[in-house]
Design brief:
Number of domains: 1
Number of helices: 1
Strand content: over 45%
CATH topology: Lipocalin
Number of strands: 9
Largest sheet: 8 strands, antiparallel, barrel
CATH architecture: Beta Barrel
Order of helices and strands: HEEEEEEEEE
Length: about 130
C-alpha cells in the first residue's frame, strides 16, 4: 500500500503550518474533545525521503476523526479514519495503521495550533502540523 495511504489511514492529529514567522507558543492542556472538534488543515512531514504534503483532519464530538491527504499529484488522494482520546491533556490517536500523540499550542494572539507525532505500523514516523480551518 502506498505510503500516503498508510499515513492517511493513521493520521490523527493536529498542528499548524508555521507560516513564515516563528512565534512563541505555550502548551494547552486539552480537557474536553470539543476544544479540538472541527476541521484542521496543515502539512505532513514524513521522516523519510518523501516531500511534505497537505492534509485535512476532521474531528467529531464523539472522538472519531476522518483524514484526507494529498501526498503528491501522481499518488492522488488518500483517506483514513480513527479515534481520538484525551489523556493527561494530550490527544491520543489510534488509526487503522498507526498511532500518534497530539499536543495543542496557543500563541500570544490566542491562535491554536496542533502538532501530532505519529508512528505507523511499519515503524516509520511523521510529524503533522495543523491549524483550525476558518
Amino acid at each position: 500500500m502506498a505510503f500516503a495511504t498508510v499515513v492517511t489511514t493513521l493520521l490523527v492529529g493536529f498542528a499548524v503550518t508555521l507560516g513564515g514567522c516563528v512565534t512563541v507558543s505555550n502548551p494547552v492542556a486539552v480537557s474536553d474533545i470539543k476544544t479540538v472538534t472541527g476541521t484542521w488543515q496543515g502539512t505532513v512531514y514524513p521522516n523519510s525521503e518523501l516531500d511534505p504534503y497537505r492534509v485535512t483532519l476532521t474531528i467529531r464530538d464523539d472522538g472519531t476523526y476522518d483524514v484526507v491527504s494529498a501526498a503528491r499529484q501522481s499518488l492522488g488522494t488518500s483517506r483514513g479514519k480513527g479515534t481520538v482520546e484525551i489523556r493527561d491533556g494530550r490527544l491520543i490517536m489510534e488509526g487503522e495503521r498507526g498511532h500518534g500523540v497530539g499536543r495543542v499550542l496557543k500563541d500570544r494572539d490566542g491562535n491554536l495550533t496542533m502538532i501530532v507525532d505519529a508512528t505507523l505500523s511499519d515503524n516509520s514516523s511523521l510529524s503533522v502540523h495543523l491549524s483550525p480551518s476558518k
